[in-house]
Design brief:
2 copies of one chain form a homodimer. Chain A is mainly beta. Chain A is built from 2 helices and 15 strands. Chain A has a single domain, classed as Electron Transport, Fmn-binding Protein, Chain A (Pnp Oxidase, Chain A). β11 of chain A pairs antiparallel with β1 of chain B, so a sheet runs across the interface.
């Protein structure tokens, strides 16, 4: 095959999340796609956010944040939270909120899955800060479970692709992980 | 709605990638889902890998690695690379390889997109190391481009969901990012 070079500022498929914080005591939510699990035990998740944004202020004030997974029914609200800054717009009334054991990580009742995180580390990069949080609690509803575990298909979780800038549903099953490759074992 | 608590070791939808390294001079590939962009400029990507794995050895020997995005046609080979360790099995012959400007980050010719990365930072966590690489080059083929940009739909890129352990295709477009939310602006 013939490989060509393209712009190295390449974006990879991203989960669609809303990061929740309290900034000066007021709930705020920001759409974030630069999110990944980063530690196995204890379970930690990292969110990378541009330093100039409003959300880092809230994370650093409380050392807590939430990562909420909206379904496709919240697409418009989610996109809005990625377009407007909490510095200029009050985003505290868009969703019904609840709090968990950390008390300062606002979570979204309409989201099928909400992770409550305690900040355990910050890794500063040139334009972004990587906030690493221990997941202290995960909240969902019975209807989103399969065999007692979160089911992202039932949640209608979204993936963001760029640069086409599309929110996408999860697609058809292509195969089984930790299984399909066994046939290559001698 | 009625929220319930579930196991806090929650996994989020992940991109399916193969991280390429040279270990003692021999190419090795590992399936990795804990991957995210983490810095805007310069463009950086992070991969989180369990410390005991073989791949960290190669990253630290060369301070380079690659992140390759397989299409669904490489599902079996990808899964195999997630099941067996380079400590026990030679994975250097599974794919046709090529190298870019860094010379020590093996990339997979059969993958529609390959990111060549220079290690710029390591963040050590308790069980995992987060390897932060600057993307110095991105390689694809003309047939995977739309308007000169990578098109993950054309690439048949995969998403991994857990705990159902399914590789999934990208699904139907649910809406437009940086656009759908504008209707909520006053």
């Amino acid at each position: 095959m013939k490989k060509i070079r393209i712009d190295h500022n390449t974006f990879i498929p991203m989960p669609v999340t809303l990061v929740g914080t309290l900034v000066d005591g007021k709930p705020n939510f920001m759409a974030v796609g630069w999110v990944s699990r980063v530690n196995a035990a204890p379970p930690c998740i990292a969110v990378s956010i541009y330093k100039g944004h409003y959300t880092p202020v809230g994370i650093e004030q409380n050392s807590t944040f939430s990562v909420n997974f909206p379904g496709t029914d919240l697409l418009v609200e989610t996109d809005y939270c990625g377009i407007v800054s909490g510095r200029k717009v009050d985003k505290s009334k868009i969703f019904d909120l609840f709090y968990g054991e950390l008390k300062t990580a606002p979570m979204i009742d309409q989201c099928p899955l909400c992770l409550e995180c305690r900040l355990v580390d910050v890794h500063e990069l040139s334009t972004n800060k990587l906030f690493i949080g221990e997941i202290v609690a995960s909240y969902t509803e019975e209807k989103y479970l399969t065999d007692g575990q979160p089911d992202y298909q039932k949640m209608n979780a979204m993936i963001l692709t760029m640069p086409d800038n599309k929110y996408r549903a999860l697609g058809a099953v292509a195969g089984d992980a930790w299984s399909a490759g066994k046939k290559m074992k001698k």
